[in-house]
Amino acid sequence: MRIHILREDGTEDDVDETLLVKTEGVVDDDNEHTTWVEYRFPQSDVIVHRSAHVTIKRWPHGLGGDLGGFGDKESA
Amino acid sequence: MNWMRAFTQSLDGYLWANVQAMCTSFKQELLNGSHAFGTQGANGVRTVTTKDVFKLALFLVSASRGVADTVYNTTGELAGTGNYTQGGTTLTNATVPTTSGTTAFWTPSASAVWAALTSSAAFDCAVLYNDTSTADLEVAVFTFGSQTVTAGTFTLTMPVNDAANALVRIA
């Protein structure tokens, strides 16, 4: 498989995945489920490709449904 | 929890943070009929026949988006480099708002995808706003773990469109 990369000199290229070191990760909490993958060349700390996929699980702050009343207790 | 994250960052000496929220101004705008997530015969006087266009834009970890936002702007947004276009991406809106029980809800019908992206810096926030409105009225702020993308794809997959999980819910 060919991987699109950004070289340190700023040029972009497609290289074979077998030439790269692959690292994957997962984040899973109440808010999100995220997977990511990144690639480096062997013997290098520079990330040349990184993709991430975030799934927002749910919205924690919806609108409430309170209704106001008519008049007030003192005047009722 | 987002408030804990913001608090922790302030302890670390950072005074900025993106905080997930439905914008207060959006709630007022709902009462004023400023947003059309779907179309319907609203009432006998005016009928909504055209849905508004909603967009998602990505914001840097160093930004300060939150509940007090009223309109989209580029302050703190990813730079327009590396295949990112400021203003963000248009959401696919093929699923009309609906209800279940006492909750009304809406979710975009497709994921938001940025392909061949190299982000200008780390980002942890997406802002939902109404691109049809003249002022780009802001709807909400979503946060997630800090991400950088290099010559890759960033995907925001939408939650399940139901009363418990939808992106926009009015309970």
What overall geometry of chain B do the principal axes of the alpha carbons give? Answer: globular
H and E string of chain A: EEEEE
**Biggest sheet, spatial arrangement of strands of chain B:** 1-8-7-2-3
Principal-axes shape call of chain A: elongated
Number of strands of chain A: 5
State the assembly state of the protein chains: heterodimer
| Residue fraction in strands of chain B | 25-35%
Low-confidence stretches of chain B: 7-14
Q: Overall pLDDT of chain B, averaged?
A: 89
Strand content of chain A: over 45%
Largest sheet of chain B: 5 strands, antiparallel
For the termini of chain B, the CA-CA separation is: 21 Å
Instruction: Tell me the helix content of chain B.
Output: 10-25%
Short characterization:
Chain A is mostly beta strands. Chain A contains no helices and five strands. Chain A has one domain (2-56).
Provide key terms for this protein.
heterodimer; A: 76 residues; mainly beta; three-stranded antiparallel beta sheet; two-stranded antiparallel sheet; 5 strands; B: 171 residues; five-stranded antiparallel beta sheet; 2 helices; 11% helix
Characterise the protein shown here.
The complex is a heterodimer of chains A (76) and B (171). Chain A is mainly β and 76 residues long. Chain A has one domain. Helices cover 0% and strands 49% of the residues of chain A. In chain A, strand 1 (2-6) and strand 2 form a beta hairpin. The model of chain A has no long low-confidence stretch (mean pLDDT 86). Chain B has one domain (18-170). Chain B has helices at residues 2-11, 24-31, and strands at 21-22, 54-60, 89-90, 98-100, 103-106, 112-117, 123-130, 138-147, 152-157, 168-170. The interface between A and B is medium-sized, with 31 and 37 residues. Strand 5 (47-56) of chain A pairs parallel with strand 9 of chain B.
